[in-house]
Structures are given as C-alpha cells and as structure tokens.
C-alpha cells in the first residue's frame, strides 16, 4: 500500500532506535525508550481526588484559584521527581461545578515559561478558553470567567495550551478533571467515582523524560499509566455494588480499549454528558486521548474477588510504532460483605436532539509530509488541510448558530483524535473505502478518533463568537503543527 510505504521510508531513520528499545519498560509497550520508574508505588488503595474549594458563598458563584508551579514528588523509592502541578496536587484538583453557575478561576503562573488554562470541551467564550494566542507569562496571573449554560452537565478536564509547549507541560503533571453537574441528574442516586488517567515516564534520574524523536512523530510512548496519580490502585467495593464511573483519558497519546474482567459495561455518557439511553452489554469501550466516558458498573455478587480494569492492545499505525500491549489500569476488589442489591439504571437518561439540517459543509483533510515542523527530530509532520499551524492565520470561518457538516478525511498512516474547542458535536457517519456506516446513536462529543484511511462526518455548531482551535489531541501533534484556527463570526 502506498501509504504504508510513505511512513516506512519517512521513519527509516528512526528504525535503529526502535529495535534497540523493544521490550523495555513494564508498561508493556514496544517502541520508544524503556520506562524506568518501576519502583512506582503499585497496588495502593484508590485515592480520592483533591477537590478545588469554592471560595465564594454567593449563590450561583464559583470562585477559586489555581497555581501552576514546580513541586517535588516522591514517585518511587529513589530520588524525588520535579513536576509541574496545579496547587501541588497530582493530578490537578477536581473542579466540581453546577449548570447555571458563574465561574471565576484565577491562575498564578509560577512556571519558568508561558502557560494558559484550557477548559477542554466547555462552551466558554474564546477569550476565556486559554488559547495559545493568549498566554499568561511566567510570574503573571489572570482570571478566567464564564457562565455554565443549561445542558452543559458532563465530564471535562482542564490543561495548559501554550503555543508549542502543551505536551511538555502536561507530561510534567499539569492536568485535572472537571465535572459539571445538572440539577436533575437521573443517575444522582448511584455512587460515583472519578478515574483520571494520566501517563508518566521517568528517566534514570527519576526526572520526567523529555519527548524524543519517536514521541514527536507518533505521540509520547512508554508512559506508565496512573489512575488518580497512582499505579494500578485497588478500588474495593461491596459485592453486587452498583457504581457510576467517570473515566478520563488525559494521556498524550494512549488509546484505551477499556475492559473490566468478568463484567460487561454499560455506557451512559460521553464527553459532553449523558446519552439518551444506556447502552449495555459492552465487552469493551474505546477511549481515545482526551475523551471521557461515563459507565455504570454492576459488580459481580461474589465476595473477595479481584477483577482488572484493562486497556487492551491497540494499534495506531501500520508500522507498530504506536502499538500498545494490554495494560492493567486498576483492580476492582470485592470485600467480604454480603452482596448488595443491584440498583436500577433508568432506561431514559435525557433527551438529545439532533443538531438539525446543516446549512454548510467543510472538508478537512489530515495528511502527512516530511521535512516541515520537524521538532526534536520528528521525521513526519501531520497537517490539517495541507498547512502547518499559524496562530496569525484563520483557516476556516463560520457564523454563530450555523449548523455545519464537517467531513474529516484521514489520509495519513496513523489514527488521530480530532478535537474542536468550545462546543460539543455529533457524529453522523463513518466511512472506510466505499462502506458508509451511520452513527447508531446520538451523543455529545468534543473529540473523535479517526483511524488511518477513515473518514468521519460530524455535525457541529458554535454558539459564541471568536477564534477557536481545532487540532489533533495527540499532544506532540498539536504542538508540532497539527492545529488550525476557526473564526466564528457574529450572526
Ligand atoms: Cu484538550 Cu485544544 O485541547
Ligand atoms: Cu479543547
Ligand atoms: Cu495526530
């Protein structure tokens, strides 16, 4: 196949590295340097997340501050690891908000470089969304302010989005979960757990290792996966328990085929909140970088059992550079108590209306070339509509309220998780060759995985004027030019 040969020749210069590194790292990956940090605490009880406290007593108001600064963490028995953290928390504190709230969050930049805070997936005004064009310089502060509209309940996250340095800042520890709650949540009676999955890769000195040429080409490799900051934590519950899990993929480039041993999964929500109805009986669910899901787990009734939550093997490209073996994320353990009575999951969750008839369409092509934007030895640059990112250039124009069909064609040799800022969109169909598959259910998403040689058609509408980013959410691709600007004009 022509595509395959392109990537092969483009990556030929890296092949020595790849062979040398195979088999390293007990994260089970192939390719990339071996992960050290095997002494990372393993199998501890699942840690609850730190919570960002609301400092306002006024009704309908959420006020708080985040500081981004260096902190030393004891990740393993060896030397401490210098990390960059929000409020010293690893991961960043959980921000719990409610629909209808007015939110004001101050960021104090204690890092040695520019940063921003991006509210991934939230419908906040472009000026408040932490775009790379609006940096907060080292030592400076700013306040982000926005209102949460009705219907925005869902599972989101926040992370830095500075020009060229997003991958580095996230790799050093800057990212945290954000939940928006509705007043009338049909699952409010089900106990809830948030699982924020991040990656960490240490060098021999227990420091966060910098991205290498392979990372810059296919996304950061060989990270150990952490859930709420720890490796393979143990989550102990009563047998027969019913729980709602929010799972967030905050890794730079890992795709999870999530499966829970001995259990079928019930999907109840995606990036932008609940589905119209639960989808039960699932053996596995694919969660691409930056995506989130909500599932309901009905734990087996047997006491004193253990089940692994796993990310199963996934291949992102033809060469196997971005191929990931099975990895255990967490152990679900049942205690010795008598089995709980299973809870009923309502058969209707909330209405999701189709965005309606589109009045414009856009074609977005993902392509690859050699020789452009070759940061740190990347041999291939991935492009959007044949161009590299330029913060001073507008790539697409739309108007507030206009429903558009975006046909996103992936002509590259690897999968890309495609993300648009500021709104939730709907998948319409996927196409491989001449085979077109319409979406089987409606869901609100802000990131869609487009495998190699696939086409996805989505329906999207922006409700706030200003400049929005759209990009691949493999963070090395985002920093390495696979990003573009959408200008939303007032209607
Ligand atoms: Cu998580 Cu530009 O986004
Ligand atoms: Cu985003
Ligand atoms: Cu990509």
Task: Report a brief summary of the structure.
This protein has 491 residues and is mainly beta. The protein has helices spanning 2-10, 15-21, 166-171, 213-218, 475-479; strands at residues 61-73, 81-86, 95-98, 102-109, 118-120, 141-147, 154-159, 176-181, 192-200, 224-227, 230-231, 234-237, 242-249, 256-260, 265-270, 273-282, 285-287, 292-298, 306-312, 314-315, 323-324, 327-334, 360-370, 380-384, 396-399, 404-410, 416-420, 426-432, 435-438, 447-450, 454-460, 466-472, 483-489. Helices cover 7% and strands 40% of the residues.
Supply the key terms.
mainly beta; about 500 residues; six-stranded mixed beta sheet; seven-stranded mixed beta sheet; Immunoglobulin-like; binds CU-O-CU linkage; about 5% helix; 33 strands
Explain this structure to me?
This protein folds into two domains: 1-351, Cupredoxins -  blue copper proteins (Immunoglobulin-like, Sandwich), CATH 2.60.40.420; 360-489, Immunoglobulin-like (Sandwich), CATH 2.60.40. It has five helices and 33 strands. It has helices spanning 2-10, 15-21, 166-171, 213-218, 475-479, and strands at residues 61-73, 81-86, 95-98, 102-109, 118-120, 141-147, 154-159, 176-181, 192-200, 224-227, 230-231, 234-237, 242-249, 256-260, 265-270, 273-282, 285-287, 292-298, 306-312, 314-315, 323-324, 327-334, 360-370, 380-384, 396-399, 404-410, 416-420, 426-432, 435-438, 447-450, 454-460, 466-472, 483-489. A seven-stranded mixed sheet has the order 11-10-9-13-18-15-16, with no helix packed on it. A hairpin with a 2-residue loop joins strand 28 (426-432) and strand 29. It is globular, with a radius of gyration of 22 Å. It starts with a helix and ends with a strand. Residues 12-37 have low confidence and may be disordered. Bound molecules: CU-O-CU linkage (C2O) and copper (II) ion (CU) (2 copies).
